[in-house]
């Protein structure tokens, strides 16, 4: 039986129903947003450099947070996965554009690859809301 305190949010990712996960899950005052890759609403990959792709990932995160009653201001931790260390500044600046004043704890990792070869970045987030009544 489903937990009534648990709310799942799905996005346009074609992987969610096949791999059995949600874009984000809220339990009480906590929202966890799964790794967001640069996927457009039609399922294609976001074109452009790592900064443009990171901006798309962050848009998906914002949409997921808002769908579950949160906002970027509630984010306490992010993780950024990049495939090329040369992209760190572009991804970091996109992250800073959303979280510059919020300044969550954050980690950036260089990994060998993501699921699609054109993806340069994937970002996940954790949020804690000050009001758990939603």
UniProtKB/TrEMBL annotation:
The protein's name: RidA family protein
Annotated source species: Sphingopyxis soli
InterPro entries reported in the protein's UniProt record: RutC-like_sf, YjgF/YER057c/UK114
Superkingdom: Bacteria
SUPFAM superfamilies per UniProt: YjgF-like (SSF55298)
CDD domains attached to this UniProt entry: YjgF_YER057c_UK114_like_6 (cd06154)
């Amino acid at each position: 039986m489903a937990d009534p305190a648990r709310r799942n949010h799905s996005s346009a990712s074609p992987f969610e129903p096949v791999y059995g996960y949600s874009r984000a899950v809220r339990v009480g005052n906590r929202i966890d947003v799964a790794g967001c890759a640069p996927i457009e609403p039609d399922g294609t990959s976001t074109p452009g450099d790592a900064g443009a792709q990171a901006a798309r990932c962050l848009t998906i995160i914002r949409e997921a947070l808002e769908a579950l009653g949160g906002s970027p201001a509630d984010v306490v931790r992010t993780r950024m996965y990049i495939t090329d260390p040369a992209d760190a500044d572009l991804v970091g600046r996109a992250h800073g554009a959303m979280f510059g004043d919020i300044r969550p704890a954050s980690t950036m990792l260089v990994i060998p690859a993501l699921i699609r070869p054109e993806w340069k970045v994937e970002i996940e987030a954790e949020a804690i809301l000050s009001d758990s009544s939603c």
